[in-house]
Amino acid sequence: MHALLQRVRHARVVVAGKVVGDIGPGLLVLVCAELGDTEAQADKLLAKILKLRVFSDAQGKMNLSVQNMDGDGTLGGLLIVSQFTLAADTSSGNRPGFSGAAAPVDGRRLYDYFVAQAQVAHPVVQTGIFAADMQVELVNDGPVTIPMRVAPPV
Fold it and tell me: Active site residue: 6, 41, 55, 84, which one?
């Protein structure tokens, strides 16, 4: 599985003119399931995201996670958005290929699982809508943008 994290001041997802997900400071998590991905990979990716220290401490160093982003127990939000285009293959031609992305039924299952696990592990979780035409609005803080990938087990 892959994710692209963006540390944000705020972010929201709009579908058909309606806000469906909205957070203040936290992480926008664009997530993609690839062929062969499993729930174990989703669990590992989520654990890494929740512990990733990308928020500044009092000395200005990236030392705090979304679970303690102000150093005083303050939780940041997670806005989780499905993004199959993270599986794009641009190695040949001018049109990206997406054959590495999980089939839609598997992608939805893993996305739904990832979101459900995030909601159990973190109290501030918002989402987009799987396979919808979404407009994602954000103010990237830093900017801080971090790609993450959890490879399948060998």
Answer: 84
CATH architecture of 2-139: 3-Layer(bba) Sandwich (3.50)
Of 6, 83, 126, 127, the active-site residue reads: 83
DSSP characters over 17-50: TEEEEEESSEEEEEEE-BTT--HHHHHHHHHHHH
Q: Which residue has the tokens 């806000």?
A: 19
Instruction: Say if pTM beats, i.e. exceeds, 0.90.
Output: yes
Q: Where are the domains of the chain?
A: 2-139
Based on the residue annotation, tell me whether 84 is a catalytic residue of this protein. Answer: yes
List, for residues 3-40, the tens digit of each pLDDT value. Answer: 999 999 999 999 999 999 999 999 999 999 999 999 99
- Per the annotation, the verdict on 83 as an active-site residue is yes
Q: Is 130 a catalytic residue?
A: no
